[in-house]
Design goal:
Elements lengths: L8 H13 L1 H21 L4 E9 L2 E2 L7 E2 L3 H10 L1 H11 L5 H6 L1 E5 L5 E8 L2 H53 L4 H36 L2 E5 L12 H26 L6 H8 L3 E6 L13 H4 L4 H20 L3 E6 L6 H14 L4 E5 L7 H5 L7 H6 L4 H4 E3 L5 E4 L14 H12 L5 E5 L8 H7 L3 E7 L4 H13 L4 E9 L6
Helix pairs in contact: 2-8, 4-6, 6-7, 11-12
Amino acid sequence: MESPAEPRSDDVREYGRILWRRRRQIVLVITAVVAAVFLFTFVVPRTYPSSVSVLVKPLPVPGTSTDVQAPNMDTEKALVLLSREIADRVRTSTSAPETDEDLMARVDARVVPNTEILVITFVDPSPQRAATVAQAYAEEYVAFRVREATGAVSAAEAPLEKQISDLRKRINQLNLRVANTSSRVARRRLGTELDELLGQLGILQQRLLGVRSSLDVAKDSATIVSSAQVPTAASGPDKNKTLLIGLLVGLVLAVGVALLRERLDDRVKSAEELERAIGTRVLGSVPRVRAWTDAREARLELRAEPDSEVSESYRMLAANFLALASRELITTLVVTSAVDGEGKTTTASNLAVSLAEQGKKVALVSADLRNPRLHEFFGIEDDVGFADLQWDSLPVEKVERDTDIPNLKVIGSGGTEHQARPHFESDRLSHVLSSIRETDVQFVIMDAPAVLEAAESSVLARGVDGVILVADGRSTSPTLARAVSQLRQADVRIIGAVYNNAPSRRRG
């Protein structure tokens, strides 16, 4: 028999990452639940319970003098809880403003184990009234039980008295007949009949005496053995216990909500999820820059903070790219994303700077004519550039710009008049790329428009050796899947991905 499968350590770690990622939400839910429970313990009104103990005795069996019937304590308990007649009498005797239903909702009854003692409890915000109503409930229950028992005895007594009365009439009639009869034979016959009736009368009178003697038992069928006392301590939820339960419930609820939201949330939240979503390696994870509050800011992190964790991650990205490029002979590269705003231009710029710092000659090209931003990262004019190479056949030397970074040249997007016609011709694009490669550079990196927002992105990607797809924590799996599908339909080679705004690995 196969042993039950144990949870894989990878799954456990994944759950741990989910809970850590949603820790603020978990703390919020737990805090809300505990706060609600805390308020509940103070909002619930304080009530006082008062109890009366009643000894429930056996009932006489009607028609007998010695037989008794043991009480069914479950029936007696239900009688207290459910009898509208008892509740109505209590309401009348105590002048209670509540309805019968309100009184019945606040009374309780329990049986002391292994005894015939019934404990009747009533709760009320007033201690005095709790004792008064509890006592009234016990007294009305006792009265109800006595009425029922004596009624049963009386019901058995009435037919016996009628039979005795009828027999006495017959006996009186026979006595008259005997007195008026002179025949010995007739008198003997009537005497025999009279003896039989007298015998029946004696039996009935004996039975009547037995029934009447059971009436005393019926009148004592229930007795209050402990009267109600005015309570001094209020009842209510145990605050410490209730808060502990609230904490546990809040924890379970918070974890459940976190896991549910995680399941419904299709955003890519880690480099591992990005790899699963697009089916290829992640070349680098770039942490979030906390000081970078404006997403539109053109920031070269390698120049602004060269020793930061973010700069180090861009150097790692460049190292991984160089290793891959040497194995797979990659010299031209498109950097793109599924949609705008995921950091493709920032990634392309910092990757190019990192390669240049390592002595590689790089041409960085702004091929996003719809939303050109590359020139902002290097403080150059965007008057001429890639569009002029494409449509005006200008030589590369006329459009490339030197930067203050050795080994790095930048080609802007070009004049604004070309932004109205951003689509490229494949043959001309191939010639442009060849012209750029001939300018003594080792790598050509192109910042392309987002795949799902511009058809020319696939055209650009098809003309280079490989594509890097950039995503961040806002990217969704369906969106990335559509972008990958579109690129692969264009026979584009996706060599890897970059995950932006990843959690920091440094600890303070």
